[in-house]
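Priority: medium. Attachment 1 of 2:
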C-alpha cells in the first residue's frame, strides 16, 4: 500500500505555478525513503535538488547584485543567509510543502514532514521542477517571492554563517586553500547523519556532524573557527598558519643573529668590542651557525 499521497492542486495554487509536465512536480515531492521503499525504480528528488541549488544561487546572486550596492563580502553574506537550510526550510513551511511530500513509513514515523533538512532539499527540488517545466522566469518569480520579503525584514533576520566567516579569515592569506570533505555518512534514510571535515591545505582544522551535509559543513566551520564567536576573539586553530608564523619568527631570528655577528666582528676589528664573547658563552662562529640553521628552518617551513 502506498504511503501518504495528497492532491497537489492546492500546492500549485499556493506557489502560483501550474505544471505542464507533472512528472517534474512528482519527482520533487518524492523523498528517497519513499522511492527506496516502493522498489519500483522511482526517481527521488535528489537530482532535482542538485539542480535547484544551482538555480537558486544564480537567481539570488543576480537579484542581490542589481539591488544592493554592497561590497562583495557583504553580498556573499546576504546570499548565504538566503540559501541556507534554515531559510529554505522557513520558505517551504510558508506553503506547507511538507504536507505534500511522499515519504517512506520510517521517515513518516520519525517526523520527516517537519525535518528542516528534508524541507530545504524539497524546496530546491521544487524550484528545479519549475525551472525544468517553465524556464528561468517562473523560477525567478517563485524564489523572489520569498527572498524579497525576507530581505525587507533583514534587520530581524539572524543567521550566523560560519563557513563565510572562516572563508573571510582564510582569504587574508591568498596562498591558503580551504575545502570541505565528507568523511562519513551513516544511518537510515529517515535519520541520516553526516560528518564533514574542513581542511586548510592538507591539514584538518575542524570536524562537524549534522543531519544534512550543509549543517555538518557549518558545524565543521565553527570547529575550525575555534568556537570563539559572538564577540569573542576569533582563533584559527590551523597548523598551516601556525607553521608559517613559526617559520617567519625563525627567519627573523636568523637575520638578527647574522646582523649581530657582523656587528661584533666589525667592532672587534676596530678594537672596540671583544670578538669571541659578545654574547656570553656563545662564540661568534656559533652565532653564525645558529643564524644559518634558523634561516634554513624558515625556508623549509
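Attachment 2 of 2:
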Amino acid at each position: 500500500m502506498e504511503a501518504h499521497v495528497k492532491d497537489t492542486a492546492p500546492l500549485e495554487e499556493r506557489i502560483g505555478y501550474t505544471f505542464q509536465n507533472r512528472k517534474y512536480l512528482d519527482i520533487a515531492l518524492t523523498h528517497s525513503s519513499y522511492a527506496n521503499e516502493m522498489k519500483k525504480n522511482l526517481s527521488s528528488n535528489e537530482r532535482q535538488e542538485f539542480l535547484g541549488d544551482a538555480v537558486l544561487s544564480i537567481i539570488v546572486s543576480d537579484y542581490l547584485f542589481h539591488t544592493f550596492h554592497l561590497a562583495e563580502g557583504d553580498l556573499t553574506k546576504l546570499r548565504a543567509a538566503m540559501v541556507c537550510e534554515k531559510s529554505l526550510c522557513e520558505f517551504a513551511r510558508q506553503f506547507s510543502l511538507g504536507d505534500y511530500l511522499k515519504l517512506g513509513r520510517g521517515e513518516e514515523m520519525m517526523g520527516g514532514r517537519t525535518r528542516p533538512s528534508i524541507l530545504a532539499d524539497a524546496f530546491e527540488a521544487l524550484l528545479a521542477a519549475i525551472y525544468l517545466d517553465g524556464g528561468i522566469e517562473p523560477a525567478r518569480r517563485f524564489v523572489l517571492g520569498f527572498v524579497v520579503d525576507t530581505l525587507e525584514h533583514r534587520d530581524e533576520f539572524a543567521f550566523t554563517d560560519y563557513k563565510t566567516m572562516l572563508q573571510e579569515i582564510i582569504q587574508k592569506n591568498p596562498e591558503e586553500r580551504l575545502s570541505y570533505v565528507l568523511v562519513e555518512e551513516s544511518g537510515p534514510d529517515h535519520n541520516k547523519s553526516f560528518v564533514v571535515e574542513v581542511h586548510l591545505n592538507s591539514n584538518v582544522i575542524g570536524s562537524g556532524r549534522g543531519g544534512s551535509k550543509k549543517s555538518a559543513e557549518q558545524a565543521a566551520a565553527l570547529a575550525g573557527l575555534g568556537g570563539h564567536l559572538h564577540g569573542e576573539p576569533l582563533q584559527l586553530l590551523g597548523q598551516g598558519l601556525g607553521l608559517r608564523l613559526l617559520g617567519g619568527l625563525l627567519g627573523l631570528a636568523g637575520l638578527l643573529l647574522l646582523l649581530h655577528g657582523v656587528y661584533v666582528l666589525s667592532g672587534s676589528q676596530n678594537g672596540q668590542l671583544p670578538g669571541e664573547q659578545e654574547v656570553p658563552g656563545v662564540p661568534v662562529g656559533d652565532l653564525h651557525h645558529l643564524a644559518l640553521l634558523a634561516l634554513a628552518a624558515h625556508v623549509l617551513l
